[in-house]
Model the fold of this input.
Amino acid sequence: MGSSVAFFCGPLDNKKLQNYATSLGLYLVSSRINKEVNSDPSLGPYCYLSLVPKSMLHPFGNPPTKANCALYFIVFFMIAYL
Done:
């Protein structure tokens, strides 16, 4: 796992973690600009932590739907699930 930190939790723990990130002023942003972060982590187990909402992120790709850190820093965030 190298530079990764693994943790496992249930849906309630996951929701608390998401709420904590939000309380720190961070946004959970889907990897696709045109989608929302899934409330069921088994259906979409990763997203980004961002300092800005997804409307301020720079989209890229063809079509331009992927989130990009060209203008603002984003951190890859793996949502824990069982």
